[in-house]
Amino acid sequence: MKALVMWARDHYPEPYTLNIRSRTPETISGFVKMEGEWRPFSYDRKARVITVGEGEDAQRIALNEWGWEQ
């Protein structure tokens, strides 16, 4: 979860806001506020990959252990 939180806090000038709805040993899901808009997200804890959005418009973001996009 550290990488997810660091990713959200690292955005300037306004950090992303996380609203976590579900957490299991494998995934974290909920909503992330990006650019004033709430979007659903799912985070794979083992692979450190965030999927923001749903369907064909979904964006996949791979993170390193410090929350930096790869």
Descriptive terms for the model:
5-stranded antiparallel β-sheet, mainly beta, single chain, 5 strands, 70 residues
Task: Summarize the model shown.
By secondary structure, the chain is mainly β. The protein has one helix at 2-9; strands spanning 17-23, 27-34, 37-44, 49-52, 59-62. The chain has 1 helix and 5 strands, in the order αβββββ.
Number of spatially distinct domains:
1
Number of strands: 5
Strand order of the largest sheet: 1-2-3-4-5
Task: Report the end-to-end length measured between terminal Cα atoms.
Answer: 17 Å
The low-pLDDT segments are none
Structure characterization notes:
- This protein has one domain.
- Helix content is 11%, strand content 44%.
- The protein is built from 1 helix and 5 strands; from the N terminus they run αβββββ.
- The protein has one helix spanning 2-9, and strands spanning 17-23, 27-34, 37-44, 49-52, 59-62.
- The protein has a 5-stranded antiparallel beta sheet with strand order 1-2-3-4-5, with helices on one face.
- β3 and β4 (49-52) form a beta hairpin.
- The protein is globular, with a radius of gyration of 11 Å.
- The model has no long low-confidence stretch (mean pLDDT 94).
How would the blueprint of this fold be written?
Elements (H helix, E strand, L loop, with lengths): L1 H8 L7 E7 L3 E8 L2 E8 L4 E4 L6 E4 L8
Antiparallel strand pairs: 1-2, 2-3, 3-4, 4-5
